[in-house]
Amino acid sequence: MRIFDPHIHMTSRTTDDYENMRAAGVRAVVEPAFWLGQPRTGPTSFIDYFDSLIGWERFRAAQFGISHNCAIALNPKEANDPRCAEVLDVLPRYLGKNGVVAVGEIGYDSMTGAEDDAFTRQLALAVERSLPVLVHTPHRDKRVGTRRSLDVVRESGIDPGAVLVDHLNEVTARMVADSGCWMGFSIYPETKMDEHRMVAVLKEYGTARILVNSAADWGRSDPLKTHQVGLAMLAAGFSDADVDRVLWHNPVEFYGRSGHLLLGTEHGTGAAAALYEGNSVLRGQS
Ligand SMILES: [Zn+2]
Questions:
Q1: Which of 118, 189, 219, 286 is the most buried (most CB within 10 A)?
Q2: Whole-model pTM over 0.70
Q3: Contact, 37 vs 13, CB < 8 A?
Q4: What spacing in Å lies between the alpha carbon of 278 and ligand 1's midpoint?
């Protein structure tokens, strides 16, 4: 099984996770820029974080044979902090780079005016740069938040085929399917979607325009949930080709629109002794 996790925050994960992901078939990931739990106090913290997404983290993933790409944005939660607003002016410097395959995650957290402003400005940036966008839907008031996100997306004039609306469930899936946007499902160990409900969604909607991710981060989450969806699909009678479509071809098609998607070995040797600015992932071993 060949897996591309289209939404995972590897910065928050360990080398054991990379090893287990590789063994389960994960060959590529997209890491969207997000909220780190600890509030940032200014734009330079974001710059260091973005640099690490296109630098150290890509290098680290390559040591485990995984192609690492990212999405860059000011996340919805921190869009509310005026100290961080300047980050919006820094984004263009990252959006033309190889391995930066989308603007994201953008969207709503609490649906404030500041979030509206950041959401709209970043959609305009995506249109200007012909990049896909990853839209996070709020965990509270999901139906209202998703409906309003789709309205803002429509008003931006962006091609719905360049938009992934993520963290969906059975309540919000239909409106996104009808909008022409891509449908993203995050599979969590305890809340939201699980692999069996995901199989039921795939039976209802088919395998086109659907992305399945683990959204694993610093919270309770599991980076192998994509693999478990693949197994649940096979157990439910889907073919190997169906699994490959959902877990590999769909993310390649969606993020491939950017023209910046890195896949394969051209940017990583898989050699654990390799160095990034003089440092390796080893700790004294050879
Ligand atoms: Zn996320």
A1: 118
A2: yes
A3: no
A4: 30
Residue 138 — very low, low, confident or very high, per pLDDT cuts 50/70/90? very high
Longest Cα pair distance anywhere in the chain, in angstroms? 55
In angstroms, what is the span from residue 73 Cα to ligand 1's centroid?
12
Strand partners, 103: 72, 133
Distance from residue 75's CA to the centre of ligand 1 (Å):
9
The rounded Å distance from CA 44 to ligand 1 centre is: 21
* Tokens found for residue 138: 């709020």
Q: Are strands 26-32 and 210-213 parallel, antiparallel or unpaired?
A: unpaired
Q: Domain locations in the chain? A: 3-256
Say which CATH topology domain 3-256 has: TIM Barrel (3.20.20)
- Cα 285 to ligand 1 centre (Å): 33
Taking the centre of ligand 1 as the mean of its atom positions, its distance from the CA of residue 216, in whole angstroms, is 7
CA distances from 187 to 41, 81, 145 (A): 31, 29, 19
Q: How far is the CA of 143 from the centre of ligand 1 (A)?
A: 19
